[in-house]
Design a protein that fits this description.
alpha+beta, Pyruvate Kinase, Chain: A, domain 1, 2 domains, 7 helices, 12 strands, elongated, five-stranded mixed beta sheet
Length: 290
């Protein structure tokens, strides 16, 4: 049995003893079939190898060694954070339950096993704050559509959009249509964000300028909506456009939550009370192996 199998077997035994909700593997080595009843996910991140070839004659062996260790530490820390973020995303997508996740991370010529409690995860904690205002089912449904838009775009091109969820009556008062509202006159069942049959039309209308307005009951009130807000005192990340600024501003003026998808890179932001609550740089998903 080689070292890779020993690490995997040790991680599986640990996960089973902890009654973990998932095992997440981050690296570039495929471990083959893993015998366990716990869901196993594989996440590979395309990134530059942090361990560069060290060839500088002016450095001593000790300096080379310290620099190598530092870079290994950076790589391990980055992959640990990646496993934590992937865990939070799969929890948001309702693929894994809250609890302990065991991660296997592979860095250059080494492996590590980490244990991560989702109750301590920053993204999960912030999501709980959103769920104090919007029901979990509706929030997760909107997030799933937003993640899909972020990852796949539409017709092979990246698109940006925003969803304003909750306090819909007040949000509608503080906005106007940029185009004819495609949801006007539609049946309630065709406007229900909880019904997966309606997600394709949402992704289609996401190509329109403007934002979606969704009620606290999960009904899509409008698409292609322009927000009439004073956003002069709103501060958002540099480089983000007017959609993000106005989305943040409407959450200051109403009891709503805004979820935005950036056209450049698919980065997601969630705003509440006029401030950024959640920032998701990478919306990559893990692949379930077994």
């Amino acid at each position: 049995m080689d070292s890779t199998e020993l690490v995997v077997n040790a991680a599986v035994r640990l996960a089973e003893r902890l009654k973990s909700t998932a095992i997440i593997i981050s690296g570039e080595v495929f471990f083959g079939k893993i015998e366990t009843s716990i869901p196993v996910y594989f996440a590979i991140r395309k990134q530059k190898n942090l361990i560069d070839h060290l060839v500088t004659s002016s450095k001593t062996k000790e300096e080379h060694f310290k620099e190598t260790l530092d870079k290994i530490g950076q790589q391990a820390a980055g992959k640990t954070e990646y496993v934590e973020n992937i865990s939070a995303i799969e929890f948001m997508m309702e693929e894994i339950e809250e609890g302990t996740v065991v991660g296997i991370i592979e860095s250059k010529d080494s492996y590590a096993i980490i244990v991560h409690n989702l109750a301590d995860n920053h993204l999960v904690k912030k999501l709980a704050e959103c769920e104090e205002r919007i029901s979990s089912d509706i929030l997760r449904a909107v997030l799933k559509v937003a993640f899909d838009i972020s990852n796949t775009g539409r017709e092979s091109k990246q698109i940006g959009t925003a969803f304003i969820v909750g306090d819909a009556e007040e949000v509608m008062i503080r906005s106007h249509q940029m185009i004819l509202n495609p949801y006007t006159g539609q049946k309630d069942e065709d406007r229900n964000i909880l019904d997966k049959k309606n997600w394709e039309s949402v992704k289609e209308f996401a190509q329109l300028d403007g934002v979606f307005i969704i009620s606290e009951e999960g009904k899509i009130e409008a698409a292609g909506r322009y927000l009439d807000v004073d956003a002069r005192d709103i501060s958002v990340e540099k480089g983000l456009g007017g959609r993000h600024v106005s989305a943040a501003a409407i959450t200051r003026d109403t009891v709503s939550i805004a979820i935005t998808v950036s056209e450049s890179g698919g980065v997601m932001h969630i705003y509440m009370d006029g401030k950024e609550l959640i920032h998701i740089e990478s919306t990559e998903r893990a692949i379930r192996m077994c």
